[in-house]
Write a structure and sequence with these properties.
This protein is mainly beta and 350 residues long. Helix content is 3%, strand content 47%.
Length: 350
């Protein structure tokens, strides 16, 4: 029986959504942060998309955002030449780290004590968050602006990508271990610790490399230019999105296209699987985040599978249930929070 993919649409941003990241699984579930050109990164409940709060303080587009594993801290990278560290529970700004140019990427170490940043000045910086006033360690070597920088190999190494080059660095010696150059601009990079897999996208190619050696593992060609791809935690599937507004789902082992559907009203800039693999999120030029089920029709989060009568001839499709909150109650909540870190109340809708 056919099942129809019904995404959850998370509105609230007013400009393109350019980056997103999930936390690990905590006692309170898992969480999702989004970076947007409107300068207002948002925190949401990861499995439902319910809005929790907006981090206010940047004076320019936010290009990168991340959460630490237990979702107690957030970090953002922005066009106002700063990276900021936030208390993700209270929404308070903890630290502002001044840079000399636009900051594009941020990443915490596993213990959340250090923050890695990169941006248009072509430098990697490592900040000791216990001594935020101290000068950061700097790593030079990139020849163009850094798009993404990630800790890997239990924080012993660093992966970074500029326009067409991906580099692997040794943290202890601050030296380059290896680099790989591509003939097209690298549009995204994801690191999978289990198995040390690096997921890269450039042009129409989705490529998988060893994070330890940068040696290629396999690659797939998509029908359109791809801006971002993500590998399922169990390495069963991968999803990708790009310039043709579509999301593509592939079998990781065979490369077979399993699904494709128009997901947004603009190019897709970022896609990521949730830490439990039950859903994936996509962010777009259209200013929205959307959540999609990995297994369509499964009861999970706000999705509740309701099968029609057998003789009705209808296709089965997942229904989406919402908490019973009236518009008046939502307005009251927004009014109560108007002076706090939490700004206007975005919607989550089918």
């Amino acid at each position: 029986m056919a099942m129809r993919q019904t995404p959850l649409t998370c509105s609230g941003h007013t400009r393109p959504v350019v980056d997103l990241a999930f936390s690990g699984i905590t006692p309170y579930g898992y969480f999702l942060i989004s970076a947007c050109k409107d300068g207002k990164p948002m925190l949401r409940q990861g499995d439902t998309g319910d809005w929790i709060g907006t981090f206010l303080g940047h004076k320019g587009a936010v290009w990168g955002a991340t959460l630490n594993k237990d979702a107690t801290k957030a970090a953002t990278a922005a066009a106002d030449f700063t990276a900021k560290v936030w208390d993700a529970v209270s929404g308070d700004e903890l630290t502002t780290l001044a840079h000399k140019h636009i900051v594009k990427t941020v990443d915490f170490t596993q213990d959340s004590n250090y923050l890695l940043t990169g941006g248009q000045d072509k430098l990697l910086r490592i900040y000791d968050l216990n001594k935020p006033e101290a000068e950061p360690k700097e790593i030079s070597g990139h020849t163009s602006g850094i798009k993404k920088a990630l800790w890997c190999s239990e924080d012993k190494q660093i992966l970074s990508a500029d326009d067409k080059t991906v580099r692997l660095w040794d943290h202890a010696t601050m030296t380059e271990v290896k680099s790989v150059t591509f003939n097209m601009s690298v549009s995204s990079m994801e690191y999978i610790p289990e198995g040390e897999v690096l997921v890269l996208t450039y042009g129409r190619t989705i490529a998988f490399h060893s994070a330890l050696s940068l040696e290629p593992i396999k690659s797939f060609e998509a029908p359109a230019t791809i801006n971002s791809a993500s590998l399922h935690p169990e390495k069963e599937f991968l999803v990708a999105g790009g310039e043709d507004f579509k999301l593509y789902k592939y079998d990781y082992n065979s490369g077979e296209e399993l699904e494709s559907y128009k997901g947004h009203f603009g190019p897709i800039h970022c896609v990521r699987f949730s830490p439990d693999g039950e859903l994936y999120a996509s962010g777009s030029e259209d200013g929205t985040l959307r959540l999609w089920q990995t297994v369509v029709g499964k009861t999970y989060g706000l999705w509740k599978c309701v099968l029609p009568e057998e003789d009705s001839g209808e296709l089965a499709k997942p229904k989406i249930g919402f908490p019973e909150t009236t518009e008046e109650e939502l307005e009251e909540i927004a009014s109560e929070n108007s002076d706090s870190i939490y700004s206007s109340t975005p919607e989550v809708k089918a």
